[in-house]
Design a protein that fits this description.
Blueprint (H helix, E strand, L loop, with lengths): L2 E2 L15 E3 L2 E13 L3 E3 L13 E5 L2 H25 L6 H6 L10 E6 L6 E3 L16 E13 L4 E12 L22
Parallel strand pairs: 1-3, 6-9, 7-9
Antiparallel strand pairs: 2-3, 3-8, 4-5, 4-8, 5-6, 8-9
Length: about 190
């Protein structure tokens, strides 16, 4: 189920009570996964490289209420880490890591990082629901997205949440076209 981001209760995030080991890291899963629909975002990096290979993440610029939601979400994760430190990191003194090891997904004040799933899973489409190639999402693209947060990842010296891109709907680019060329009796200066 996808929620509008402002419907997520940040005071009651659905985090598991204990961490579990997946591969070489400990994780605390969201139960259920948090899936949200964003406001309009601006890509500050492309989704694919020059060879049309999917990049591991995309950076996007947010503003307004959605930007505030992301910042409040991070604050809620920090509060949850402090509250659950004994069960998330048993047998470790983690006070310093909680204060200094939180890995924010922000890269500046309003630019944040979104990890991208494989090209077969991340879907890029237009407003008519027609699927587009991933390289259509280039730097400067405006888009709405469905993002997923599966878990809090707990490392040895840092921890954080990873947002993953599930779907991206590109806003169409408005192009202006001249209906007719200037005639011989019209001076270009008439339009200035």
């Amino acid at each position: 189920m996808v929620n509008v981001y402002n419907k997520v209760d940040l005071d009651a995030l659905p985090l598991a009570e204990t961490a579990t080991k997946i591969k070489n890291v400990m994780v605390v899963p969201f139960q259920p996964v948090i899936r949200i629909q964003t406001d309009l975002l601006t890509a500050t990096s492309p989704l694919c490289d020059e060879n049309k290979d999917l990049l591991p993440n995309i950076y996007a610029k947010a503003n307004g209420p959605f930007l505030n939601f992301l910042k409040e979400f991070e604050t809620s994760i920090l509060k949850a880490a402090k509250h659950n430190a004994a069960t998330w990191w048993p047998k470790r003194n983690v006070a310093d890591m909680i204060d200094n090891g939180f890995k924010s997904y922000f890269k500046g004040d309003d630019v944040f990082k979104i990890n991208v799933k494989t090209s077969a899973e991340a879907i890029v489409f237009d407003q008519t629901s027609s699927e587009l190639p991933n390289e259509a999402a280039c730097t400067g693209s405006k888009f709405w997205a469905v993002l997923e947060a599966h878990r809090v990842v707990l490392g040895k010296t840092e921890f954080g949440v990873v947002w993953k891109l599930d779907q991206m709907m590109l806003k169409p680019v408005v192009k202006c076209e001249v209906a007719a060329p200037l005639g011989p009796d019209v001076d270009e200066g008439d339009f200035l």
